[in-house]
Amino acid sequence: MKIESIEITNTGYINCRSCYYTTCDVFSGLLTYHFVSGLNIRTGDIDSEIWGISYLLSMYQYDRNKKNQKCLASPLTVTVNNHIVDLERFWPCSCYMDEIYPLFASKRTVEHQVLKGIKKNGFKETPEEIREMFHIDKNRFMRPLSGVGNEKFRCMAAIGYVNRKEVFCFPWLSRRRFDGFHKHMEDLFDILCSLEKILIVPLGY
Questions:
Q1: Model-level pTM?
Q2: DSSP notation for 54-109
Q3: How far is CA 36 from CA 179, 199, 201, in A?
Q4: Which of 80, 86, 100, 134 could covalently link to 158 via disulfide, CB atoms 3.0 to 4.6 Å apart?
Q5: How confident is the model at residue 182 (pLDDT cuts 50, 70, 90)?
Q6: How many angstroms from the chain centroid is the CA of residue 11?
């Protein structure tokens, strides 16, 4: 499914987590979030609803049955390309850009994970061409995701890309932490936008 636009509204509480932070976020139901192809940055505090939306669209599917997960209004739906669909149909198209996301659980090298995605999804590119596409260092491409340092977002995006992800949902990042990845992030945003992906990026002030 080629996703060009997303709209979503919800009410309730949701526990969001990443390798950096954990918070309980609250959906007021007063706002409808609109996202289109390209870069969608939303700025606010860690619990100002923006992380919750990104999390709901990507990672919530793996947490919804946990005892500590909060309550959201049902049914869980999203408007995609002006059509209302269940989130269950949407989730395979989204990717949570954090190491806790199951797609990134493998301890194999980034190259191995990219090759696996290429074979599974019928891509014509080679792993080397994907590495060059995402400007990943050759040495880091040969390491597991836990060993790629500040290129981890590039590597996760490459793995997501060969697994046919259309919507890249980032965890909330403080401005200071985001600035630590700054040049890598700017370049990655340009790459994903050139591939006509949707990027949802919640940032601190």
A1: 0.97
A2: HHHTTTGGGTTTSTT---B-SS-EEEETTEEEEHHHHGGGEEE-STTSGGG---SB
A3: 24, 8, 12
A4: 134
A5: confident
A6: 21
Q: Which two tokens mark 2? A: 């080629």
> For residue range 114-153, what is the model confidence (pLDDT) as tens digits?
999 999 999 999 999 999 999 999 999 999 999 999 999 9
Which residues lie closer than 8 Å to 104 by C-beta, 6 or more apart? Answer: 98, 113, 145, 156, 159
Residue 68: is it exposed, middle or buried by C-beta count within 10 angstroms (0-12/13-18/19+)? Answer: exposed
Chain segment 69-105, per-residue pLDDT in tens = 999 999 999 999 999 999 999 999 999 999 999 999 9
Residue 145 CB burial class (10 angstroms; 0-12, 13-18, ≥19) = buried
DSSP 3-state assignment of 12? strand
